[in-house]
Design brief:
Structural class: mainly alpha
Strand content: under 5%
Radius of gyration: 25 Å
Order of helices and strands: HEHHHHE
Number of helices: 5
Low-confidence stretches: none
Helix content: 25-40%
Shape: globular
Distance between the termini: 58 Å
Length: about 160
């Protein structure tokens, strides 16, 4: 008889512990870590591609108004500076620290990225998959591939 009592106690204790571990209360200040995309890849690959496609000043030869693109008229505001950090890169490692204008460009570009790059405004607008004045580059071109590659280079901080 005593043996059955000990077994019942053990079973009851295990049930109590198991039922107490099924949920976790995250608390009132629950946050998911932000995704931080690789700065070096941005400065050495993404930003040079953006500037080569004249996304800042626009390209009057392709119908853009002079100075009317991302240096001036949108919430995706790029800042011009020279020399670009990308001009000093050794592979995907900058050899100089980014100036404030470059850091601002990185931050505004990062804010337009997604882990799934096909949902990222940074890819959808210049490929005209979202409303944009003109198609800057093809969705299957090398420029789009650079943005897709950047989506895989991130950390949670």
């Amino acid at each position: 008889m005593r043996r059955a009592s000990v077994g019942s106690l053990v079973a009851a204790a295990l049930l109590t512990f198991a039922s107490g571990c099924t949920t976790v209360e995250p608390g009132g200040d629950f946050n998911i870590a932000d995704v931080v995309y690789d700065e070096n890849f941005y400065y050495c690959q993404v930003e040079p591609m953006i500037f080569a496609n004249r996304c800042g000043p626009g390209d009057p030869g392709k119908g853009d108004s002079g100075g009317g693109c991302h240096f001036n008229v949108t919430t995706y505001r790029l800042r011009d500076y020279s020399p670009l950090v990308g001009e000093t890169c050794n592979g995907i490692v900058p050899t100089q620290g980014p100036p404030a204008a470059a850091q601002g460009n990185y931050q505004t570009s990062q804010a337009r990225m997604q882990l799934d790059p096909d949902l990222a405004p940074l890819l959808n607008y210049p490929t005209k998959q979202a409303v944009h004045p003109r198609k800057i580059f093809d969705a299957n071109g090398p420029e789009a591939d650079i943005i897709r590659q950047w989506a895989t280079k991130f950390s949670n901080q």
